[in-house]
Design a protein that fits this description.
It holds the Pfam family HTH_1. The chain has 3 domains: 65 residues, Winged helix-like DNA-binding domain superfamily/Winged helix DNA-binding domain (Arc Repressor Mutant, subunit A, Orthogonal Bundle); 104 residues, D-Maltodextrin-Binding Protein, domain 2, CATH 3.40.190; 104 residues, D-Maltodextrin-Binding Protein, domain 2. The chain contains 10 helices and 11 strands. The strands form 3 sheets. Strands 3, 4, 5, 6, 9, 10 and 11 form a 7-stranded mixed β-sheet that branches. Strand 7, helix 8 and strand 8 form a beta-alpha-beta unit. It is globular.
């Protein structure tokens, strides 16, 4: 059985680039690092490094071992954390998955309130994507904030709680001719230069393009920003306009103006998937209750 400490030392040598750098990073002597690496080579029967000038270079076997032990070391780190939690009296853990705009708009206030009410609770916050949700353990989060239409089949082992709808808006640079005209239609943006604000395969991007296709045109994206906050900066610079979720357009610079979109316009349906394994989870239920209150009474959480 491989020694986890030796694996940590070996992985540090690969990441640091030398025995001495690893020793400095780990607070060990270079002799101790060399001994751990030599012992690991004997245990595995592998040649992990070879000489290159005055230094060493990891072999293909070493690089493969690093890759294969990523998950193992992650799990070992979680075990270390669990022991520390028990030692310090923290008995509960709650993993919450979230998407970027929810993270900026809701998560700081939620975490502040939840940790105040449950000081012994350990929170794991996981930025998740529509195509690859899950925590670092490979087990899905206890609560997963998702962008899903109401008719989406509920993931096995979870129950769904609808949170709110999030209509898309258009943001334009100050001085744009559309400002002051009230809600605009997507067809009013037909001749505009567009800035994308999400990955092409994301739910939001596909919704926007589908709605544009439905009114007879395809957006002319000249900038692939692929995240909301970079896209806002491109709009601020006068590069183009961007259609993005209202939740992502809450805090805009003064030189960017948000304009509502007239129907038919894309709308995100936001929900919380809560783990449902038959065991009551007071912290998870309270987190959802706080989140619901935060969404409907945002100013009450600013105090």
């Amino acid at each position: 059985m491989l020694d986890p400490h030796r694996l940590r030392v070996f992985r540090s040598v690969v990441a640091s680039g030398s025995v001495q750098a690893a020793a400095d990073n780990l607070g060990l002597t270079s002799s101790a690092v060399s001994q751990h690496v030599a012992a690991l080579q004997r245990e595995t029967g592998l040649t992990l490094f070879h000489r290159a000038g005055r230094g060493i270079v990891p072999t293909e076997a070493a690089l493969a071992l690093v890759e294969r032990t990523d998950e193992v070391m992650s799990r070992w780190g979680e075990l270390d954390q669990a022991v520390a939690d028990l030692r310090e009296g923290r008995s509960g853990r709650l993993a919450i998955g979230y998407f970027a705009s929810a993270g900026a708009a809701w998560m700081p206030a939620l975490v502040k309130r939840l940790t105040h009410e449950y000081p012994d609770l350990v929170l794991e916050l996981v930025l998740t994507e529509a195509e690859a949700r899950g925590s670092s353990t490979g087990r899905g989060p206890d609560i997963d904030l998702v962008i899903d239409p109401p008719d989406t089949p509920v993931r096995s082992g979870y129950r769904r709680i609808d949170l709110t709808t999030d209509p898309f808006v258009v943001i334009v640079p100050a001085g744009h001719p559309l400002i002051g005209q009230g809600p605009v239609s997507l067809s009013d943006l037909r001749r505009e230069t567009w800035v994308s604000n999400d990955y092409p395969r994301s739910i939001g991007h596909r919704m926007v393009v589908a709605h544009c296709n439905a009114v007879g045109f395809r957006p002319r994206f000249t900038v692939q920003a692929q995240d909301h906050y970079t896209a806002i900066r491109f709009v601020e610079a006068g590069i183009g306009v961007s259609v993005l979720p209202g939740l992502a357009a809450r805090d805009l610079p003064a030189s960017v103006v948000r304009i509502p979109l007239a129907p038919p316009a894309p709308v995100r349906h936001l929900a919380a998937l809560v783990r449902d394994d038959g065991t009551p989870d007071e912290a998870a239920d309270r987190a959802v209750a706080l989140l619901t209150d935060l969404i409907h009474h945002p100013r009450s959480h600013l105090r």
